Fold each of these.
Amino acid sequence: MRSKKPLQRAILLPRGLPRRRITQSAPGQIALLHAIAHIELNAVDLALNMARRFTKTQLLVDFYHDWLGGADDEAQHFLMLSDRLADLGAAYGDLPAHDGLWQAADATKHDLLARLAIAPLVLEARGLDVTPTIIDRLKSVGDE
Ligand SMILES: [Fe+2]
């Protein structure tokens, strides 16, 4: 069951976050899943920001619809991770997180092409590159 408490999170600089090793005990899995949930929630915010921020740029309406659909997808991912965190007795907001994605969003807020180059093509792509490793790490501690 999902937590009913409001989302609260401590935001730190990326290098300010403690590094945690994943183990068969819950804290390492919670830390990893919490970090991924934070990325998914940021992806919701970034997709909604894309759908709204660049409305003065004359683009096909499909551009905006695609970003709204992406926000919905990312929200589903966040909720699935929230459910998994709840299975482990935790909730999003229990641990600090970083604002690295928003720093990139802020730095590119006036330039659509820069935003598209940095957010989906670099940051999201980097996240996808590490996904197989994350899957292996979770499987290695018995979390299918
Ligand atoms: Fe996602």
Amino acid sequence: MAEIIKLPLPLLKGTMSVEEAISKRRSVRNFQDKPLMLYQLSQLLWSAQGITRRYKRAAPSAGATYPLNIIIVAGDSGIIDLVGGEYLYRVSDHSLKLIKKADIRSPLSSAALGPSFIGTAPLTLVITAVYSRTTSHYGNRGIRYVDMEAGHVGQNVSLMAVSMGLGSVMIGAFSDSEVSSVLQLSKEYIPLYIIPIGYPVSDEV
Ligand SMILES: Cc1cc2nc3c(=O)[nH]c(=O)nc-3n(C[C@H](O)[C@H](O)[C@H](O)COP(=O)(O)O)c2cc1C
């Protein structure tokens, strides 16, 4: 039986304006050794792919084909009340599905050509894509639609992070095959973006 962890419901009002979040956003590559709360993970995932109206989601998707899946890599003691490990975000009921109970930050960092901050960030989100969900409607043009959508999701996550006092960085440089192997992704899931997230050390902002 799959282990499912229900997330707290997302808050639909925050304390920082969109303008302030945009102006404060900066790539952060140095994180404090400070855990995140489960509600912060909930907000980040909701901003990435949460359902906002009927079946439609927080980020736009060509033809509402929704090709993206978000993988969560939580460090040991990275998130309060969540065992370190790998999880899949289940959009339908805003929950996590446990994939593996193990802190895989270090092998993930190696698969991403070794940046230390992937090894130390309390949380990393990996945006993966199943291209066929979109190319089956749009042919080859669907490839660019999927890549564009990953950008929308990445920006939502970046700004959501800033609004909660967190920082993040978008990582595009990694070995697809090694990341897929570390995350034990099935063949049709292609990793597109790795996003380490945490509290910035003060000189990073
Ligand atoms: C598509 C894309 C790929 C990126 N890949 C990496 C990366 O592999 N490693 C990294 O440290 N930063 C990466 N970045 C972050 C950029 O280096 C960063 O956004 C840029 O230096 C501008 O700084 P700012 O984000 O603070 O405005 C990437 C950004 C984008 C948009």
Amino acid sequence: MWTYASQYKLAYFYVIGAVILSETANIVVPLYYKKFFDLLAGTQTLTADERTSGLVGAIVAVLIFHAIGWLLWRSMGVVHNWLQPSVMADIVQSAHASLHRHSYAFFLDNFAGSLVRKVGRIERAYEELTDQLQFRYIPLAIMITGNLVVLYLRHYLLAVILLVWMVVFIAFNIWFSMWKMKYDAKRVEIDSEATGVLADSIANAVTIKLFTGFGHERSLYQEVTERLRRMQMLTWNLGEITDAMQAGLMFVIEFALMYTAIHFWQRGMLTIGDFALIQGYLVGMFGKLWDLGRAIRKTYESIADASEMVEIMEASPDIVDARGAKPLSFQGGGITFQNVYFSFNKTRRVLKGLNVAIEPGQKVALVGPSGAGKTTITKLLLRFYDIERGKILIGNQNIAKVTQESLRAAIAVVPQEPILFHRTIRENIRYGRPGATDEEVIEAAKKARCHEFILELQDGYNTYVGERGVKLSGGERQRVAIARAILKDAPILVLDEATSSLDSESEQLIQQALHELMCDKTAIVIAHRLSTIMEMDRILVIDDGRVVDDGTHSQLIRHKGGIYKNLWEIQAGGFVN
Ligand SMILES: Nc1ncnc2c1ncn2[C@@H]1O[C@H](COP(=O)(O)OP(=O)(O)OP(=O)(O)O)[C@@H](O)[C@H]1O
Ligand SMILES: [Mg+2]
């Protein structure tokens, strides 16, 4: 946090300095009240006039110190109100940036909701920690030191009593907070669980309706909220115990100090003013110490909250550019997979020595059973994952040795399940090429057969598509994704089931557009509907992480007992023979 805060050193020093000084004023004020009451008690031999002017002098001094404290505090507030939001903005921006440095796999392993919460938490943790430091710990430290020094000068025993009490009070608070923390942690845990149940049931609202599952959902939610209620009661009651102990300790010290003071007063070592001084200090101290336990707990919690995000910010991404990586210089090169081995985890190997050489400009289809590894092949080409063994080349450049950005800029992808931003359709399409003009966007939309349905939407191209694009049908979403890829116009095109959600007529129309799009590009097309890939230059049959057959459509349907021939016969329904 200091990394971010230190960008604003001057402002910080002002804030801390102002806090220290105005707190010092709070220590000085009771000294003038001591003087005031000593004058009132009239132990010194003074005339009435001298006494009056002394009294007025004392309260004027009090006024001046209050005014200085007030001025410092208010001006500190202004600086603080500028400083804290600035640092918080820096932190969340940096958190956002460091999230997006992470790999594709990172986002599969971490729920979006939980990442969003972590960013929110580090922001609040910073606020909480700086507030505690500036407005609680520093003032408290100044006050304790000041009070001890002043009381020591009155009589050392007063300072000793106060010091011993402080140690007991703070030690009790820290110990009790630590002990209570496990119950607080438990409560937070149940609280997140309850939020999870709630969020899950909202996300599945449609399923709940379809299966009339509300009764079940209600009892699930009741069960978890009931546990939360019980835990909440327990932690609140423990808080009650802390309060009771604190209050007890407070009247003990009040009695101890005043009792000792009476003793010394009897022997003429303290004056009446000293009682006012002690009272003044006690009142100030009790105010600051009252919820120290809660503050300590909050501090620990904030540190825990922040550290989750800090871990992510400091972790090095699993996919990084090689040292001295150059941008990919694409000069119409082909794509080569050389003996590629890959597994997502130790037990499940997806690619087992894949060898594929795609000529420049060739249009290749990947077919094969579900789960064979087709999508995985395209993800490896994009370097979403690093491979275990072998090489992937574009032209003669190893994709692991070029910058990720240039690699991905050379490939346009229409994914199997496209997800859109909750932005307008226009912005979603333009994402393919941020510099594109409105005309180019519309042109691409027309080619992808989006234009007609977009015009029928409420706000045309300015219609918002809902979270992840849920307000569009599956086929519409696919067409937007195709338009986006058309606009990107990258030399390599990857279509992963790009038209699977379309009816046969729309599909045929888009196929034409896609064929035009592919004509000067190297293309990898994945499809289950074989009729859409019959005209490819080459069809690779993938099974169990290897290429098991390779050829044109007419070659492959002659391979007796081959996977392709089987698939073809099933899909053609026996009519083609
Ligand atoms: N992130 C992942 N973590 C672990 N295993 C994965 C992951 N993604 C895919 N797999 C597994 O890898 C295998 C290949 O998946 P892939 O998506 O490449 O299949 P596919 O050939 O594209 O299938 P489909 O035709 O159904 O789209 C599957 O068994 C799948 O379960
Ligand atoms: Mg797939």
